[in-house]
Amino acid sequence: MGGSAMRGLTELEGCVLGLIWELAPCTAYTLRQELLQSHSPYWSGSAGAIYPLVARLERQRLVRAKDRATGKRRSKAYELTPAGLRRLVQWLGPPLTDETVGVPMDPLRTRVRFLGALPPASRAAFLADAEARMRDRLTRMEKPSGASDPKANLYEELNERGAVAMMRARLEWVREVAAGRDGRPR
Amino acid sequence: MGGSAMRGLTELEGCVLGLIWELAPCTAYTLRQELLQSHSPYWSGSAGAIYPLVARLERQRLVRAKDRATGKRRSKAYELTPAGLRRLVQWLGPPLTDETVGVPMDPLRTRVRFLGALPPASRAAFLADAEARMRDRLTRMEKPSGASDPKANLYEELNERGAVAMMRARLEWVREVAAGRDGRPR
DNA sequence: CCGCTCATGTAACTGGTTACATGATTTA
DNA sequence: TAAATCATGTAACCAGTTACATGAGCGG
Predict the structure, then answer these.
(1) Among candidates B158, B97, B94, B11, which has minimal Cα distance to A172?
(2) Which of residues 50-109 of A touch B (CB under 8 A)?
C-alpha cells in the first residue's frame, strides 16, 4: 500500500509536513514565508524547493489541497491527510536515529578545527568576530519574546529556547577557545 | 587569474582543504577515512563525493598531487599549493558569514517543534529515547580522551570539546523539555 | 497607469548520495 | 588460493539552489 516504495522523508519534507499540520489549511506561499522568516534559515525557502516538494507530497497523498480561488486568483490550501499525519508521526519518532541525536554539523566548529592554518593575528580576529556576531545574534533572539508574539504553541517556544541555549553554549565555547588557548589544566 | 570564476567553497570542500593542509601529503583514501571515522559523520565520506571533489580542487590548482606509485599500485598524495592555502585562509575567515555563526540546523530541535503532533504518551517516549541516546553518546565521546590519542593538535582538541559542549547543552535542554513542559515561570 | 507585493510555478545546474566496477595487496 | 581490505574511480540519481517567467490584485 502507499504507491511508491515509501522512502524516508528528507529533513525539509518532514519539516514542511509539520508546518502544514500546524498551519492547515495553508498555501505553499505561507510555508515559504514561514521558512524565510524563521531566524534560522538553513533552508532558502525558495520557490524552487517548496512547490515541487508539496507537489510530491500531494502525489503521495500525504497532503490534499482545497482549491479556493478568490476571484481570478488561483490558490491551493493544503492540509494533512490521515496518511500524512501517520507519516509525520513516524518521521518524528520514536525511535530516533543516530543522525537525529548525534552532534549536529556546525560550520563554526569546523573552521575552528583548522584555525592553526591562520596566522596568529588572524586567529584572534576570527575569534573576536565570532564572539561579537554571536552576542549580537543572541540579544536579537532573546529580546522580541517580550510581548510581541505570545508564542502560539508550547513546542514552538521550547524549540526557540533550544536555539537560544545552543547559541549560549556555542558562545561560551568560543570564549573558552579565545581566552585560554591554553585552558586545559595540562 | 585563477581560472574559473572562483565561486565560494562548499562546506565539504573547505573541510577537505583543511584536512589536506593538516595531513599533507595524503591520499584521497586517507581523507575518506578521516571523514568516516570522525564521530560526527554528517558527511558520508563516500568515494563518490571525495574523488570528484579532489579532482575539482586539483583542476583549480588549489591542490597538487605527487604521484607516488609503490610497485604496481597507483597512488596520488595531495598537498596544498600556495593558492590553496590562501583559499583555505580566506574560507576560514574573518570575516565570518551569518551562515557560519548563526544557529546551526538540528534535526532533534526541528522534531521537538512538532512534538504536539504526537499522542502524549509518545511524547514522553520520544524525550526518554532522546535523553538516553544522547547520554550514551556523551559518555562515549568523553571517555576515549583518557590516554589513547594525545590529540595531535590543539584546535582538533578544542573542536572536540566544542562538540561535547554542544551535546551537553542539548541534553540539558531536552531534560528541561521533558521535566517541565510547564517550566516557564508563567 | 505604474510599480509593488501576492502567488504559483518552471528550467538549468550542482554537490552529494548510493551502488557499482576494477584491480592490487595483504592475511587466513 | 580464497577472502578481506586497500585504493581509485564511474554512473545514475536526487533534493535543493539560483534565476527566470507569468499573471492577479492593490496602493500611489
Answers:
(1) B158
(2) 85, 88-89, 91-96, 98-109
